[in-house]
Each structure stands twice: as structure tokens, then as C-alpha cells.
TrEMBL record:
It comes from Thamnidium elegans. Coiled coil: none annotated. It comes from the Eukaryota. Residues 33-218, 221-357 form the FAS1 domain. Keywords: Signal. GO terms for biological process: cell adhesion; extracellular matrix organization. GO terms for cellular component: extracellular matrix; extracellular space. This is FAS1 domain-containing protein. GO terms for molecular function: cell adhesion molecule binding. Residues 1-19 form the signal peptide.
Length: 367
């Protein structure tokens, strides 16, 4: 069975913007995540989620996770968003004459190698991640890993990543005066790095982990070519992939890499007209580094060494990266600044840069 349209509608249509009301919910200190979410008249606003996981025995492994002892963090879509998704799903099922008995899609229905059960599993992190406490530790963005690690969809085998961020800039975050005044009003977002959703209620404590209520569904990281199409400012790179399909298939089939993808303006400036196939492939390889480097890793590495670290590309060239400790800006090879970061693939990560990374650079960025 296919839920392509349902999923893409969920993707495109249901990113509901809901005002954040980060109410802290009190509890009796002896309830599991499952207990809290299914308690009558609770104020978590997530009865549809509980309805979903109870609708089909295929969701039992998820219920077990939420009921058994453990240390988890769940991002639970609110009733508002699940109602919309389910409406889309029902219309889709009707149109495609799929036999639906209840309100909910079956656990084993699949789309692009993901079952619905996988999609839900992506919302669960195998660790206690207290969002408020991230603030206390001066971490402005954080990458955590979901318990979804089946090799069909997670080519890295680390558990598909989830990005947690908030609406403070790096500079604000590292300014104690600013944080004292504003820290408790920060709003949090989670997602795959290019499609992020608001956290409406955060850090609800249960015996086996924490619950956060979110205002859309989380979309797991997909293949590089799929993701690149969806990211703003990469039209030029997308054109390149169309013209040279070998680049896209190489990105799709490689694992464990970081791609520094030049933004459209950067490619325009570089004027690739007239370059041959080999030169272009080499250019792309010079933006590709082995290993998955999220910005918190790059920053942490660099700040132990006066802001400097090095990367070695697939074309075997080593270039420096510099992290400005005030602004947090990351500049590669003295010229290319990361302007959009931590966009996840199922096999690596991408950062968008505002200039190509070339070996013959003359002008430095002023930062
Ligand atoms: C948060 O608390 C306020 C005041 O108690 C209440 O009006 C509001 O409905 C609550 N919001 C949520 C999402 O529970
Ligand atoms: C907590 O709940 C468990 C399971 O329901 C029960 O066995 C235990 O006695 C409870 N502990 C406290 C301190 O209430
Ligand atoms: C949860 O984490 C705590 C602290 O690290 C640990 O003591 C406890 O055993 C863990 N619980 C489970 C069920 O893994
Ligand atoms: C639809 O599903 C129900 C329950 O699983 C089953 O009894 C019924 O025969 C199915 N109908 C069709 C047309 O497959
Ligand atoms: C599904 O998995 C197969 C085998 O790993 C792979 O060849 C195919 O490209 C995947 N499909 C999608 C849409 O990711
Ligand atoms: C906050 O996080 C730190 C490190 O991540 C951890 O050691 C500490 O126990 C956490 N504190 C609370 C209150 O969760
Ligand atoms: C989360 O961390 C904050 C700040 O350290 C702390 O006040 C709060 O009690 C923690 N919440 C949970 C559920 O651990
Ligand atoms: C830190 O934040 C305070 C309060 O917003 C502001 O007045 C001050 O200029 C900031 N300091 C720096 C170095 O940006
Ligand atoms: C959260 O719940 C755990 C397990 O019940 C408990 O040990 C911890 O003290 C609670 N934390 C807070 C901040 O209430
Ligand atoms: C990359 O993988 C995706 C998902 O399997 C597939 O849809 C796409 O056609 C692939 N692109 C290339 C250029 O191989
Ligand atoms: C780009 O390069 C091509 C071939 O080298 C050249 O003909 C063209 O004028 C250049 N375009 C710009 C805008 O520099
Ligand atoms: C990914 O690449 C990094 C850097 O080369 C390496 O340290 C790491 O072991 C690799 N991980 C896997 C799973 O291959």
C-alpha cells in the first residue's frame, strides 16, 4: 500500500503554526509516558496519538516502549495536527479504495520504505533529553537520535537524527544577561533540519522519560536527492544534479558524509558553464567530507583549538574551518560561510554555504 499523497499532504499542508503555550504539566511522579498520555482529562492534548497506537496490534512495540521502564524522549503530535493528518489519510484511503475499518492507518502501511509504525518510531528518542536543561548547558542546537534505526531507512545505523533548536541566536545564548532575562521564554523547535515544528508543551516528566507535544508531524530524513529538492536556496545545486545524474546517485549511495552544498548565488558566481563532467564531479567531491559533522560537533571541536579545525575532502584536499566564538559563524577555507545548517539525510548531513570552496581564494570573509 502507498501513502505517498497522504504523506506529502501531511508534509506540505499540515505544518500548522500554532501559538506556543509551553505549559509545564505536573504529575504524580509515578506514571509512565503511556499512563500520562492516556490518563482521562489530561491536558496534554494528545488523545489521537494514543488512539492511533491502540488502533492496530502492529503498533504494540511502540506501546511497549512507552509503558516499559526506560529513558526516552517523545515528541507527540497534538490532536490538532493529527486530526488534520487523519482527515487527509481518510480522503486518500477512500479515493484509493483502501479498506479502512477505523479512523487510523494500519501500522504496516508503507511509503518509501517507511511504515507508518516507523514514522511514529522516529518521534521517540532513546535518551532523556530535557529541553530546558539544554538551555542551562549553553547548547543552542542539539542533535539527538531516534530509536528508529532499521537499516532500510537509517543508512548510518545511529538512529535517525532529530534536531532540537530554539529561537535564540548563538550570541544571545552565550550572553548571560540576555539569557537571564529571556531564557525561560525561549521557544523550541524540532525536526529534520529543514522541516521543523514547534514544541507546544515541553519536558513533561514520566518514570520512563519525557513528553513534548509538537504542532506538526516529524518527517524523517530522506535520500540526499529527495531532500535537496526541498531545501530553499539550492535550485542551482538541484540543476547540477539534473545535468549530472552521477552526482546524485553517488550522494544517494554513499554513507557517512558531510556535504557543504553551495547556495544558488554561490554557484552562479562560480560560473560552471563550460566545465566538463570530470571537473564538476571534482568540484562536488571538494565539498564532500567523510564523517557526519553536525554544527555542534564542529563548534565543540574548533573551540578547543582557538576556533580552528580542519576538514579533508573526498578529493583529498584539507581546508581549515573557523568558528567565531561570539557569533557562532562557521567559515570554511576562509571564504565559505555556513548559512543553513544541519539538514539531515538518511546517510549523512548537509550544510548550505554561501560560496564555493576553492583552493585559490584571495578574499577573506570579515567576521
Ligand atoms: C496553559 O495554561 C493556561 C493557563 O492555565 C491555559 O489557559 C491553557 O489552555 C494551557 N494550554 C495548554 C496547551 O494546556
Ligand atoms: C509506582 O507504580 C508502580 C506500578 O504501578 C507500583 O508498583 C509502585 O508501587 C508505585 N510506586 C510508588 C512510590 O507509588
Ligand atoms: C535510565 O537512566 C538512569 C540514569 O542514567 C539509569 O540509572 C537507569 O538504569 C536507566 N533506566 C533504564 C530502564 O534503562
Ligand atoms: C475490510 O476489512 C475487514 C476487517 O479487517 C474485513 O472483515 C473485510 O472483509 C474487508 N473488506 C474487504 C473488501 O477487503
Ligand atoms: C528502499 O530500499 C531499497 C533497498 O535498500 C532501495 O534500493 C530504495 O532506493 C529505497 N527506496 C527509497 C524511496 O528510499
Ligand atoms: C542536565 O544535563 C546534564 C548534562 O547533559 C546532566 O548531567 C544533568 O543531570 C541534567 N540535569 C537535569 C536536571 O536534568
Ligand atoms: C529539566 O531541566 C530543568 C533545568 O535544569 C529542571 O528545572 C527541570 O526540573 C528538568 N525537568 C525534568 C523533567 O527533568
Ligand atoms: C547582552 O544582552 C544584553 C541584554 O539584552 C545587552 O544589553 C548586551 O548588549 C548584550 N551583550 C553583548 C556583548 O551583546
Ligand atoms: C522525573 O521522573 C523521574 C522518574 O520518576 C524522577 O526520578 C525525577 O526526579 C523526576 N524529575 C523531576 C524534575 O521531577
Ligand atoms: C536517490 O534515491 C531516491 C530514493 O531512493 C530516489 O528516488 C532517487 O531517484 C535517487 N536519485 C538518483 C539520482 O539516484
Ligand atoms: C561563464 O563561462 C563561460 C565559458 O567559460 C563564458 O562564455 C561566459 O561568458 C561566463 N559567464 C559569466 C557570467 O561570466
Ligand atoms: C565515519 O567517518 C568518520 C570519519 O572518517 C569515522 O571516524 C567513522 O568511523 C565513520 N563511521 C562509520 C560508521 O563508518
Amino acid at each position: 500500500m502507498q501513502i505517498g499523497k497522504y504523506l506529502s499532504l501531511a508534509l506540505l499542508g499540515v505544518s500548522a503554526v500554532v501559538a506556543q503555550t509551553q505549559n509545564q504539566t505536573q504529575n504524580d511522579n509515578n506514571s509512565t509516558i503511556y499512563d500520562l498520555l492516556s490518563a482521562p482529562n489530561n491536558n496534554l492534548n494528545a488523545s489521537r496519538f494514543i488512539g492511533l497506537v491502540n488502533s492496530d496490534t502492529g503498533y504494540q512495540p511502540i506501546i511497549n516502549l512507552l509503558k516499559n521502564p526506560g529513558n526516552l524522549t517523545c515528541f507527540v503530535p497534538s490532536d490538532g495536527v493529527l486530526n488534520k493528518v487523519l482527515t487527509v489519510w481518510k480522503a486518500y484511503a477512500k479515493q484509493h479504495k483502501i479498506n479502512v475499518t477505523g479512523d487510523y492507518p494500519p501500522a504496516n502501511m508503507s511509503y518509501n520504505n517507511y511504515t507508518v509504525s516507523d514514522l511514529i518510531t522516529y518521534h521517540i528518542v532513546g535518551d532523556r533529553v530535557n529541553l530546558t536543561n539544554l538551555t542551562d548547558h549553553n547548547i543552542s542546537v542539539s542533535v539527538v537520535h531516534s530509536v528508529l534505526n532499521n537499516s532500510k531507512v537509517d543508512h548510518l545505523g545511529t538512529g535517525l537524527p532529530i534536531l532540537i533548536g530554539n529561537n535564540a541566536s548563538y550570541a544571545e545564548f552565550h550572553n548571560q544577561t540576555w539569557m537571564q532575562a529571556n531564557g525561560s521564554y525561549l521557544e523550541y523547535e524540532v525536526g529534520n533540519g529543514h522541516d521543523d515544528t514547534d514544541v507546544d508543551i515541553k519536558d513533561v516528566n514520566a518514570t520512563n522519560g519525557l513528553i513534548n507535544i509538537i504542532s506538526s508531524v516529524l518527517i524523517p530524513p530522506m535520500s540526499p536527492t529527495t531532500v535537496i529538492k526541498e531545501v530553499d536556496d539550492l535550485d542551482g545545486f538541484e540543476e547540477l544534479l539534473k545535468k549530472y545524474p552521477i552526482i546524485g546517485s553517488t550522494l544517494n549511495s554513499t554513507t557517512n558524509f558531510t556535504l557543504f552544498a553551495p547556495a544558488s548565488d554561490a554557484l552562479k558566481k562560480a560560473n560552471l558553464t563550460g566545465m566538463n563532467n570530470d571537473t564538476i564531479q571534482d568540484l562536488v567531491r571538494s565539498h564532500l567530507v567523510e564523517g557526519v559533522y553536525y554544527t555542534p560537533n564542529i563548534t565543540a571541536n574548533a573551540l578547543t583549538n582557538d576556533g580552528n579545525t580542519n576538514f579533508t575532502t573526498f578529493s583529498n584536499i584539507t581546508f581549515p574551518a573557523y568558528v567565531n566564538s561570539t557569533s557562532g559563524y562557521i567559515t570554511l577555507n576562509k571564504t565559505a560561510r555556513i548559512v543553513d545548517s544541519n539538514i539531515f539525510f538518511n546517510n549523512g548531513v548537509m550544510h548550505v554555504v554561501d560560496s564555493i570552496i576553492s583552493n585559490d581564494t584571495e578574499h577573506d570573509h570579515d567576521d
